[in-house]
């Protein structure tokens, strides 16, 4: 069952190369946006919903999509750049070249949170709990971009599902696949919390932080290409911080 990437290019249109990474990112974004629309419709039917939420239209969601797309892409890239300053300081022209890969999911989430907060300040509608409920499925889809780019892989393995990496000539743990599967499970959990419980928005956000970060913390321990802060995996540090924040939120709100 060992497998390998067919390459980062999906197809060419003349001189233009359509890359798997960008295509999957676009698909993931559209999936999240449509899921948010579904969650919004369900919440709008709730008699306890605020008047601002009830009057939220598809046009408002389209405006939110523009804000969140820009803020998430900028956050994902800037976080990656910040952790690779030794490379990007002498090569500043490569900073906007996101089609070569090099984005951070955690940076993208931070950018999305900032974009959602700014949208809330303007529109008065808090979409953060809805956003984090839909985003795990988008993360599961987007992680496959790492497969085609031969990145985000783990240690060398002889397991039958090992991923062949051409520039190492060896089979590695497909950590992108592990995280994709974990994100699907997180998404199923978020659906249950939204539809079968009466948790507050803050608790739903805390549950997302807890679920996703626990899985990321474990998976990051077997990755070999982690970005580092003071010699420690940046994703592990951020995941640990998110777990702490989530637990504090859940306990305090209880």
Verbal overview:
It is a single chain. This protein has 254 residues and is mostly helical. It contains ten helices and seven strands. A hairpin with a 4-residue loop joins β4 (163-165) and β5. α6 (128-142) runs parallel beside α9. The N and C termini lie far apart (46 Å). The model has no long low-confidence stretch (mean pLDDT 88).
What are its keywords?
254 residues; mainly alpha; three-stranded mixed sheet; two-stranded antiparallel sheet; 7 strands; 63% helix
Brief summary:
This protein has 254 residues and is mainly α. The protein has ten helices and seven strands. The termini are far apart.
Furnish the topology, listing elements before pairings.
Elements: E1 3-4, E2 9-13, E3 16-19, H1 20-44, H2 51-54, H3 58-82, H4 85-88, H5 105-123, H6 128-142, H7 144-149, E4 163-165, E5 170-172, H8 175-196, H9 201-220, E6 228-229, E7 232-233, H10 234-253
Parallel strand pairs: 1-4
Antiparallel strand pairs: 2-3, 4-5, 6-7
Mean pLDDT score, rounded? 88
Span from first to last CA? 46 Å
Runs with pLDDT <50, length 5+? none
> Which structural class is indicated by helix and strand composition?
mainly alpha
Give the beta-strand count.
7
Oligomer: single chain
Share of helix among residues? Answer: 55-70%
Approximate strand percentage:
5-15%
> In one word, what is the shape?
globular
What's the domain count?
A: 1
Enumerate the strands of the largest sheet in spatial order, edge to edge or round the barrel. Answer: 1-4-5
Radius of gyration: 19 Å
Largest beta sheet, briefly? 3 strands, mixed
Helix-strand pattern, N to C? EEEHHHHHHHEEHHEEH
How many DSSP helices?
10
């Amino acid at each position: 069952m060992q497998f390998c990437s067919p390459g980062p290019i999906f197809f060419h249109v003349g001189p233009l190369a359509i890359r798997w990474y960008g295509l999957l990112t676009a698909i993931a974004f559209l999936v999240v946006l449509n899921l948010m629309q579904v969650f919004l419709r369900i919440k709008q039917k709730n008699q306890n919903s605020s008047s601002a939420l009830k009057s939220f239209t598809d046009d408002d969601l389209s405006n939110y999509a523009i804000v969140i797309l820009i803020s998430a892409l900028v956050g994902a890239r800037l976080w990656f750049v910040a952790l690779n300053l030794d490379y990007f300081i002498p090569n500043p022209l490569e900073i906007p070249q996101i089609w070569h890969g090099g984005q951070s999911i955690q940076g993208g989430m931070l950018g999305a949170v900032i974009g959602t907060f700014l949208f809330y300040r303007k529109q008065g509608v808090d979409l953060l709990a809805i956003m984090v409920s839909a985003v795990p499925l988008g993360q599961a889809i987007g992680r496959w971009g790492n497969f085609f780019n031969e990145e985000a892989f783990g240690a060398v393995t002889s397991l039958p599902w090992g991923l062949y990496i051409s520039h190492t000539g060896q089979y590695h743990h497909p950590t992108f696949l592990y995280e994709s599967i974990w994100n699907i499970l997180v998404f199923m959990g978020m659906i249950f919390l939204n539809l079968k419980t009466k948790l507050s928005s803050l608790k739903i956000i805390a549950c997302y932080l807890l679920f996703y970060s626990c899985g990321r913390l474990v998976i990051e321990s077997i990755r070999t290409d982690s970005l580092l802060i003071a010699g420690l995996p940046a994703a592990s540090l951020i995941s640990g911080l998110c777990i702490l924040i989530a637990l504090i939120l859940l306990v305090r709100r209880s």
